[in-house]
Amino acid sequence: MSTIYDTFIAPPCHDKIEILYHDDHLVLIDKPTGLLSLSGKNPQNLDSVHHRLVQIFPGCTLVHRLDFGTSGLMVIARNKAINAALCQQFSQRTVTKVYSALLCGHLDDNEGIIDAAIAKDPALFPLMSICPINGKPARSRYQVIARFYHELEDNRLLPLTRVQLTPETGRTHQLRIHCQQLGHPIWGCDLYGGRLLPGTEQTPRLMLHASELHFVHPISKERIKARNTCTF
Question: Cβ neighbours of residue 84 under 8 Å, at least 6 residues apart?
Answer without folding.
Answer: none
